[in-house]
């Protein structure tokens, strides 16, 4: 093994050290327990998904997780990444074979990674311990090594400064060969999310944590007085990313296969204008679907701010019949959240004769934007917005699987009902056992391309994909949310910020128009509570299955309402025309429910860490 003195004398070894720091990044598209060191559970722990297999995800969802569980515990791993990033930042200047520009950029990368690891710790555990820049030495007294947790605000300030420094050093753009490395925009996007979270009710004046404090100093880990200026700071952080002008919402021009916009959308006078000033001129299905399914390479996706090569979730969301696992199911709750094609909710859908929310099945097959909607599809799944079709696999969804040389694995309608072609009762179905079938009647197809067939080249191939960690649509939603929460005018540095309905309308509507939906009016934008609820619903839909929902319901302090229910879906134990189309509780396994208590705002710090350092206070409820 090379000594550090040797490593930082050679350019190649110095670069290898930095590459090793990257290895501590999580695999966000990987959510299973198999590789516990990299996988993360946020999608499956939220109310948008259900994992049919018994493991640590469901233990957490069911509130029977303890501080002695090992699944998904990232405390040690991320601190190892922080330590190595700190070593690199301190010692990389010793490498004289690096020129000034290379050294500056590499240090910026290490600062970004260090901030990333800290932020991941904070998202999972709340306030954490900020380690001294130079680490510890064997000569230091034990009381200096056994550090305590810092307050949330101290952690935010530290990580925010790291990201600002990184943004100054990192390039604005990278060649495709460097895909997966951060840019200045990535650092600023991470700031936007960090500061939005910090302004949110969970972390801003949350008196529920009045007794959560350092046992020696008595300092509260979560501040007890709401500070509205934090929303103003979050506004400016998001706008800084937007003002860079480096990113734009991905859109695909319309062609002859693009469906017409809905008729009689009279609530929005701008709706039929050309995108982005209206919804016309683009293909709304492909503009959303192609962002995730591999149709466009990550380096050419104009919306991506930071992403990582590779994705592992797609096979777990695919039907058994195409050699998927069917393990990760969509909940009825998410299915019902999507709008009708005219922008109405499903509750309002029955009031529109052109686009009803009905129980009547489709009488003919339609093909739009390369998406096939077969005849016989139940009315609940007709006339829905394009993000619904890009995301949700429902009974009789059509899977093309064009890469397969074998007819058995392509061009089929998925049947999730009893006796169907994607259930455990079908002889010969790929990897069937009592857990490997769809128990809600819904799978996520967001990360699947029409070519995809799993199981190896003999069966077909899978389109290469990337996991998008930060994208522009999130930044727009961050921006309008923070703007909406301002009640007064705030001067931050040399900039003054106040609530601006025209800005809220502009950036919110760009997302809605890209989806082919009517936008909000200035009158809507004037209503703070209405906009708040619209933004929460839009994040639920636009960012579905991207790892946001878990944190959103917590930071808004609504998890007690949203994550305290049984998992529901279709009656998959019934035949299609004999009771399948009913919303029922999933009873195929005993753990198909989610229970939230306030302790689940944060994960428990591993008991092994508490035992090693008795100065670390355990998170409330996990003692």
UniProtKB/TrEMBL annotation:
Its main location: membrane. It comes from the Bacteria. Residues 53-196 form the SusD-like N-terminal domain. It holds the Pfam family SusD-like_3. GO terms for cellular component: cell outer membrane. Keywords: Cell outer membrane, Membrane, Signal. It is found in: Cell outer membrane. Residues 315-622 form the RagB/SusD domain. InterPro entries: SusD-like_N, SusD_RagB_dom, TPR-like_helical_dom_sf. SUPFAM superfamilies: TPR-like (SSF48452). Belongs to the SusD family. This is Membrane protein. It comes from Bacteroides faecalis.
């Amino acid at each position: 093994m090379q000594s550090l003195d040797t490593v930082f004398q050679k350019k190649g070894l110095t670069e290898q050290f930095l590459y090793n720091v990257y290895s501590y990044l999580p695999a966000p598209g990987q959510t299973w327990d198999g590789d516990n060191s990299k996988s993360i559970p946020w999608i499956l722990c939220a109310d948008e998904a259900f994992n049919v297999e018994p493991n640590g995800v469901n233990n957490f969802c069911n509130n029977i997780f303890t501080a002695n569980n090992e699944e998904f515990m990232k405390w040690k791993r991320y601190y190892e990444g922080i330590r190595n990033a700190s070593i690199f930042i301190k010692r990389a200047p010793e490498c004289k074979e690096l020129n000034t520009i290379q050294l500056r950029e590499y240090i910026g990368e290490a600062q970004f990674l260090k901030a990333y690891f800290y932020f991941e710790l904070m998202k999972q555990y709340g306030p954490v311990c900020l380690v001294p820049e130079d680490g510890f030495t064997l000569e230091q007294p034990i009381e200096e090594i056994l550090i305590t947790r810092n307050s949330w605000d101290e952690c935010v300030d530290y990580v925010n400064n790291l990201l600002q420094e990184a943004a100054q050093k990192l390039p604005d753009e990278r060649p495709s060969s460097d895909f997966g490395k951060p840019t200045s925009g990535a650092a600023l996007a991470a700031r936007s999310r960090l500061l939005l979270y910090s302004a949110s009710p969970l972390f801003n004046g949350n008196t529920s944590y009045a007794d959560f404090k350092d046992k020696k100093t008595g300092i509260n880990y979560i501040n007890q007085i709401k500070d509205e200026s934090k929303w103003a700071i979050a506004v400016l952080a998001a706008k800084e990313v937007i003002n860079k002008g480096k990113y734009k919402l991905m859109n695909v021009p319309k062609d002859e296969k693009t469906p017409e916009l809905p008729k009689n959308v009279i609530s929005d006078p701008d709706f039929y204008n050309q995108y982005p000033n209206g919804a016309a001129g683009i293909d709304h299905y492909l503009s959303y679907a192609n962002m995730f399914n591999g149709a466009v390479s990550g380096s050419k996706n104009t919306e991506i701010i930071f992403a990582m090569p590779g994705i592992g979730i797609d096979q777990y969301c695919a039907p058994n019949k195409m050699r998927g696992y069917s393990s990760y199911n969509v909940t009825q709750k998410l299915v019902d959240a999507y709008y009708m094609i005219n922008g109405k909710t499903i509750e309002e859908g029955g009031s529109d004769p052109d686009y009803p929310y009905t129980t009547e099945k489709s009488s003919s097959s339609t093909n739009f934007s390369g998406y096939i909607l077969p005849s016989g599809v139940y009315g609940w799944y007709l006339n829905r917005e394009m993000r619904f079709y890009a995301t949700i696999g429902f009974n009789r969804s059509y899977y093309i699987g064009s890469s397969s040389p074998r007819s058995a694995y392509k061009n089929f309608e998925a049947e999730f009902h009893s006796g169907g072609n994607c259930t455990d009762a079908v002889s010969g179905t790929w990897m069937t056992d009592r857990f490997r079938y769809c128990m809600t009647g819904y799978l996520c197809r967001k990360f699947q391309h029409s070519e995809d067939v799993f199981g190896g080249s003999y069966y077909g191939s899978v389109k290469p994909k990337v996991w998008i960690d930060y994208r522009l649509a999130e930044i727009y939603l961050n921006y309008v949310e923070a703007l909406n929460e301002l009640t007064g005018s705030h001067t931050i540095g040399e900039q003054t910020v106040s609530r601006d309905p025209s800005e809220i309308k502009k950036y919110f509507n760009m997302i809605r128009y890209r989806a082919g939906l009517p936008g909000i009016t200035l009158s809507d934008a004037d209503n703070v509570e209405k906009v708040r609820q619209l933004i929460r619903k839009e994040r639920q839909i636009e960012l579905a299955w991207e790892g946001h929902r878990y944190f959103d319901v917590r930071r808004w302090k609504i998890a007690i309402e949203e994550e305290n229910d049984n998992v529901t879906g279709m009656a998959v134990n019934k035949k299609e025309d004999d009771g399948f189309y009913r919303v029922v509780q999933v009873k195929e396994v005993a753990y198909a429910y989610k229970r939230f208590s306030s302790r689940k705002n944060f994960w428990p710090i591993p008991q092994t860490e508490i035992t090693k350092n008795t100065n670390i206070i355990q998170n409330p409820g996990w003692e």
